Amino acid sequence: MATSSPPPPPPAPGPAVPPQGGRRSEPAGLAGHMVVCGDNSLSQRLVRELASVYGQKVTVVLPSLRGGDQGPQIAALVGDRCLDVRAVEAQAPDDEALREAGIEHAAALALTSGDDQLNIHTALRARRINPELRLVIRMFNRTLGSYLEDLLDRTIAARVPGLDQRAVDASTTVLSDADTAAPSMVAAAVVGTSKVIHAGGLLLRAKERTVGTADRRDPLCTLALLPDSPDSDEGDVYTDPEDHDGPVLLPDPRELEGLPDERGTVVLEAITRRPDRAGTPAPRVPRLPVGSFFSRKLRAALLGLTAVVVLLAAANWYVTRETPLHAAYITLLNVMSINEPELEGSTGEQVLQLLGGLAGTALLPLMVAVVLESYGTFRRAATLPPPPHGIEKHVVLLGLGKVGTRVLDQLLELGIPVVCIERDDEARGIATARARRVPTLVADVTEGGVLEEAGIARSRALLALTSDSGTNLEATLYARQVNPGLRVVMRLFDDEFAATVYRTLRDTYPGAQTRSRSVSALAAPAFAGAMMGRQVLGAIPVGRRVLVFAAVSVTGNRLLEGRTVGEASRPGSWRILALDTAPPDRRRADLGSLTSGARTYTLTGDLAWRLHDGYLMTAGDRVVVAATREGLGVLLSGEDPRGAGASGADAGGAGGAGADSPAPAP
């Protein structure tokens, strides 16, 4: 029997977001009810993310709040009066437990168990009870996951023929820890922060800079104004809890004029490929070092044998007075011992035949040595190349398991040189490294000299991503001794242990960056974004507030359709960042999904950035916005709560009228 824990007193209600279509009568989008099944670390992180960052009402279905993997930690969230979290205790997420959790009226359900079969069974149950439910499923088998996505999406059309699936976003998203955690690990190693957003294949980061240095990387926009703070190329965004003034989110560009150069800001920057670091495509056929097929001794032996055969052929030509070609032919037959004995020949011919046979006895072992050595050289050339001598400014990747393989793919897409270390020559990522000709050491990193051979002293970062926390920590500590300023991203499974290690290394090496993360902590934001719907791309904390990035359709939205970018943007609430230029019939349903290819991590994709304030948005357009939680709720509703005449212009939008100016007609 499922038992429900008493919910804490609810927080002050925020602005509700009306549904954008479909049959559900209760609030959808940002005001929807969320259900999470599981008691592992990912569940706990996901509940915290949904309740604190997105301000959602969350119900957790788990075996017990008093035991299990994360039961006590989830119980602390339930008891937090600032969060709207309740729990349903049930040994299994059966129909009774799901109904107790309110699955009939829920907006989204996340299944975070490590058991793929249990997640599939629960997903089928939930889809049967609520066909309009948005599903986010954790699965390790990606092939099975793709089939499950298609099956559950087809179930919606079969059960509710008249339902507009696009309107209610009753989607099914299958995620894995490796795919969702890899981008943050790559960002932490490459740019020193895990506060990143994916939009249309582009990797965006929120970066703290001063007004004087804000234009250093040609930012897309200014997200916030901060109190005075030093600029740092390695720092994360401002998170000082003692600052009671707080940051000014999404300021009017005119507010930036005349500010002192030392004033702190948070800017949005794109992480793009650099021309000098662009990776060259891997050759389909391995490049074979033909010049080194034979060793020096083998080449000398072959040269000596050839000289002997030539001398024997010349002597045979002199003795027999035949043509040079015939003499060479006879000599080769003698060397290979396939000629008839010269019983009737002259003494000279008989001596030459014996000498040829004697030279032939050295030919057989020499040919065997040629075959073996050339085969070994070919095998080495067709497998994993060693790290080049003198390589520098590269990333050392330790571990080529599920997470390491995905990280390797993204580093190669960014054109960053990588040297891999993997103990198991049958690991998942070895095939990828071999196909892409990535320098790889098949060795135990705990053995002496392995990190030195990988060039750790000249590298820019170390990614320790094995499944053994002890190995990761040992490699990190040794690498710190060799290269004290090395940027390190370390995978640790226990969250408290990761926090302790991070603080210790930060205090011991204040001039270097260390990021100790568990995969669940990095994967939770992606799961939360998927639960919020395909329109939500992610969220970035700025101080004690949060900016949400989302893709919003202009069609039918009175706050966007028929307005220019300058008129529609509202300082302090939302700002329009990009326009989706892809034709409507070929647009990607989820702009936040990761893709690979030549256009990944470039500004030349389907999203047009740095829009002109005078661009007029029309029906059929789709835009990417940065907004506060409250602002996104208003924007998605398409109705301004201040009245029908209000608009982005009267809020002081960039390029629009002042704060007290009347709004233009839509």
TrEMBL record:
Residue numbers spanned by region Disordered: 1-28, 225-256, 636-666
Taxonomic lineage of the native organism: Bacteria, Bacillati, Actinomycetota, Actinomycetes, Kitasatosporales
An individual GO BP term: potassium ion transport
One family name in Pfam for this protein: TrkA_N
Domain RCK N-terminal: 31-161, 392-510
Protein name: Trk K+ transport system, NAD-binding component
Organism: Streptomyces radiopugnans
This protein's UniProt keywords: Membrane, Transmembrane, Transmembrane helix
Listed Acidic residues bias regions: 230-243
Transmembrane parts of this sequence: 300-319, 351-372
Compositional bias annotation for Pro residues: 1-18
